[in-house]
Write a structure and sequence with these properties.
globular, Hypothetical protein af1432, binds fe (iii) ion, mainly alpha
Length: 187
Amino acid sequence: MNREVALELVEKQLTERRYQHTLGVTEAAIELANRYGADVKKAELAAIFHDYAKFRPKDEMRGIIVSQGMTSTLLDFHSELWHAPVGAYLVEKEAGITNTEILDAIRYHTSGRVGMTLLDKVIYLADYIEPGRLFPGVDEVRETAKISLNQAVIEAMRNTIVFLMKKKQAVYPDTFHSYNDLIMKTK
Ligand code: DGI
Ligand code: FE
Ligand code: FE
Ligand code: FE
């Protein structure tokens, strides 16, 4: 699928603000893919579709998680986590994207996973550092992203975990597992 068709499909699913975020993630993902040797076309498509399910009603997402046999513990955690796996499912079903690497990068873009692929990392990081993001500490991560993909993903995960803890929110176990996995693999 080409960029224009993909953007048209996604634009209908999102608010203007979220669509602008998506364009930012797409540019960031292309840049990271070029820098770190990921497949640029796959990075572009995964970025365009990564937040496809962001505005689906909670009941619809819950229904898909149950009917598709997705990890049921997801339902015990914040509903913000749901749009990633549900998005992977809907992007295949509604947009006809079948490439597993692209679908996995969408599926794991919020939590990460143990054994993240190069493409998973590119999308995770692009989502965090795209130009529209204003998180405290994001500029540091942008700088790290120029030097080390793994270190930058670790910093983004650490910031996210700390942010959630400060808000006294539960942290989804996959988020910790992804962080630990990268820390132990990266020196
Ligand atoms: O969809 P985006 O806003 O572009 O970004 P995202 O998909 O990376 O994250 C969506 C939200 O999910 C964000 O507010 C942070 C939150 N989040 C990320 N990891 C966890 C989490 N929330 C909980 N409760 N636990 C997590 O592990
Ligand atoms: Fe997201
Ligand atoms: Fe993210
Ligand atoms: Fe996003």
